[in-house]
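Hello, quick one for you while I still have it in my head. A protein chain has come my way and I'm curious about its shape. I'm sending you its amino acid sequence along with the backbone structure tokens. I'd be grateful if you could look everything over and explain what you see. Here's the protein in full, and shout if anything looks odd to you:
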Amino acid sequence: KVVAGYDVGNETALEVPSQTTLFYGILTDEVEQSRNNTVSFKFKGLQSVFSEVTADKLSFATIATLTAYNLLTTVRDYTDSNGVAYFQKFFSIGAWDLSGASNQGYTQITTTALKGTSVLEFIKKIAAAERAVFYVGNDGGFKFVSRVGTSSSTAHFFGGALYTADQAHTIIDVTKYGDATAKVYNRIRVKFNQNETETSYYTAQETWAWGDSSSSFKFGVQTLDLDIPWMTSAAAATVGESMLTEYQYPKKEITFQAKFYPPVNILDRITVSYAVIDEDTSLWGTALIGRDLWAASSLQHNEFRAKEFYVTKVAHNIDNFTTEISGRAV
């Protein structure tokens, strides 16, 4: 595992925050030492262990009710030919957070249907059906959680001309901000049956006409295909319609570099405030640099106040002690 934090500088050598682990992985190569005495390691993420077992080795025949939770506990409890609970060697039985697994309906899954599919790919399909994400948390546990994220903001980042009396600048630079038009999907096709027929698909799409205000006219018909061949038709309809609601129109996305912040996790709800100028007219005067002179549209680039985002990506740089955070608007 990779551990990093701030040393508070006293004799007890305490670090903050309390959870300083950033990453769990598996060493994939030899440890290399250069002539200037630096050491390098090559890792792959701990979730890669799920790609080492094919899903046809899982047994679903004894599951009375086929829900996502029951399917994932079958993964958790899988034992190899020696009776060893394989995945629990990496994630103890108490380290599985399956809160994102709802009661979505699934049909009986056969080993034939899973031929050539890794357990990792199987989990990906279940996550797509449940509108969930899965990852290894900084506590080393396996997380399968809802895309909805936390209900309240866990941190507020300030940058540019904005700060408060008790909150200094934490944003170093905003590298990307705008509408995520590349992630607009206004036609969702869900394949819920293995047979290659039209009745094996559920299609969620809007009704539109030329010149209207629809997403399809504004952005063109953009199709997202989901292949989850173990779902009921009703479940496929639920997935398709919910995905259409989420991705029919663009949402704001942001990427910014901040001071090193280890506690941030995927799907945390964060607040971001950044402005090119401070609008304190008593100090600066609107006639010179305020909105009376500059049109509102000219100030929209990288300017927002108390906007909330769900974290979609985190990258820590422990050489420079910075954290790059990407997020999608709530």
